[in-house]
């Protein structure tokens, strides 16, 4: 009789040595606990071996992931619990996905010694696009690593002298007409809107080093309005929250590109803060520049969320709600 797909089976998986087992299974089996919860299987570790009990589909998917992890672990790579959780979610969704290029890529190491790397195939595509194109658009919801990964590549390129400076910018749309009522000069007024860029920077570079780089002009954080009239040469430029630019602002920014520069434009097209009568410069640019050579557009989704797992569920819930309201709203 054929095997019932829902019937539990058991299988043994073995790591080649104890060092590899520690990297793959985690300290005190922490990674195995994550894998067990994600795949819905029961795991019984014993030294370098682990007994897996679950359905045939569950066991095959988990075994495929463990084989990839072992191959990487043997090259000296260790995995954070977040990487294990995201890798497991990706393989659970598609057991044929090859995560080795993703998990093997290390963009840089934070000042706390943690690796910064793509966590999903789409994030890996995004980093690859940044490295191989002059202009890359990273489109996706909050928490998908758009700004953080772009910042990591920028700092890596600055430290390797591939570029001479980093320029971080974003529109201060949220301030609107209230900008004039805020205290201080223009830079002080828009600083609250640049805070996420500072946060990402300080996560990767210690504050003293970051302050020195900024003092010497190697890193510049400025509102989008400061880009007008400039030519951005030999620079890595990140335009964040680009969904809040107008088409005119976007055109102004993109025509600043100078020799030897690399540009990354990030945004979430579901969170446009412009007046309803205004078109988003990000959406307009993607449409106008479709097919133009040396430009990449990478779309990230809720499956690429690398913040708290709850963020992914929140995004999915909002998307489901928006789809359910579409027919209702279309009648007005």
Order of helices and strands: EHHEEHHHEEHEHEHHEEHEHEH
Tell me the major beta sheet: 6 strands, parallel
Strand line-up across the major sheet: 8-7-9-10-6-11
Low-pLDDT windows of residues? 175-181
Fraction of residues in β-strands = 15-25%
Quaternary structure classification: single chain
**Overall spatial form:** globular
DSSP helical segment count: 12
Number of strands: 11
Compute the CA-based radius of gyration.
23 Å
> What is the CA-CA span between the terminal residues?
58 Å
Structural class: alpha/beta
Average the pLDDT over all residues and give the rounded result. Answer: 84
The helicity comes to 40-55%
Please explain how this structure is put together:
- There is one protein chain.
- This protein has 332 residues and is α/β, with parallel strands linked by helices.
- It is 44% helix and 17% strand.
- The protein is built from 12 helices and 11 strands.
- It has helices at residues 18-25, 30-39, 56-73, 81-93, 100-104, 121-132, 146-159, 186-204, 207-215, 247-254, 281-288, 309-330, and strands spanning 8-14, 42-46, 49-55, 108-109, 115-116, 135-139, 165-170, 219-223, 235-239, 262-267, 295-299.
- The strands form 3 sheets. The protein has a 6-stranded parallel beta sheet with strand order 8-7-9-10-6-11. Strands 1-3-2 form a 3-stranded antiparallel beta sheet, covered by helices on one side.
- A hairpin with a 5-residue loop joins strand 4 and strand 5.
- Helix 7 (146-159) packs across helix 8 and helix 10 (247-254) crosses helix 11.
- It is globular and about 65 Å long.
- Mean pLDDT is 84; it is low at 175-181.
């Amino acid at each position: 009789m054929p095997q019932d797909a829902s019937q539990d089976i058991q299988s043994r998986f073995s790591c080649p040595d104890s060092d590899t087992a520690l990297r793959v299974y985690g300290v005190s089996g922490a990674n195995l606990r994550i894998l067990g919860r994600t795949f819905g299987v029961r795991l019984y570790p014993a030294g370098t071996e682990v007994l897996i009990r679950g359905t045939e589909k569950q066991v095959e998917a988990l075994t495929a992931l463990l084989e990839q992890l072992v191959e990487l672990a043997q090259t000296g790579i260790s995995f954070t619990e977040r990487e294990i959780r995201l890798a497991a979610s990706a393989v659970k969704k598609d057991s044929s996905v090859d995560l080795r290029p993703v998990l093997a890529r290390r963009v840089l190491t934070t000042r706390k010694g943690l690796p910064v790397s793509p966590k999903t195939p789409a994030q890996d595509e995004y980093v690859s696009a940044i490295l191989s194109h002059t202009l890359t658009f990273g489109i996706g919801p909050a928490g998908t690593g758009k700004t953080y990964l772009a910042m990591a590549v920028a700092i890596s390129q600055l430290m390797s002298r591939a570029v001479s400076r980093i320029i971080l910018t974003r529109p201060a749309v949220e301030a609107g007409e209230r900008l004039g009522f805020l205290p201080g000069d223009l830079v002080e007024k828009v600083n609250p809107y640049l805070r996420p860029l500072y946060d990402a920077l300080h996560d990767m570079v210690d504050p003293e080093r970051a302050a020195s780089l900024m003092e010497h002009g190697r890193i510049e954080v400025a509102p989008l309005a400061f880009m007008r009239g400039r030519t951005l040469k030999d620079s890595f430029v990140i335009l964040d929250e680009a969904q809040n630019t107008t088409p005119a602002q976007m055109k102004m920014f993109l025509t600043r590109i100078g020799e030897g520069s690399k540009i990354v434009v990030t945004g979430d097209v579901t969170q446009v803060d412009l007046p309803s009568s205004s078109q988003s410069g990000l959406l307009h640019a993607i449409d106008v520049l479709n097919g133009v050579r040396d430009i990449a557009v990478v779309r990230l989704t809720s499956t690429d969320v690398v913040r708290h797992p709850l963020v992914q569920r929140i995004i999915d819930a909002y998307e489901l709600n928006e789809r359910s309201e579409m027919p209702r709203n279309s009648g007005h």
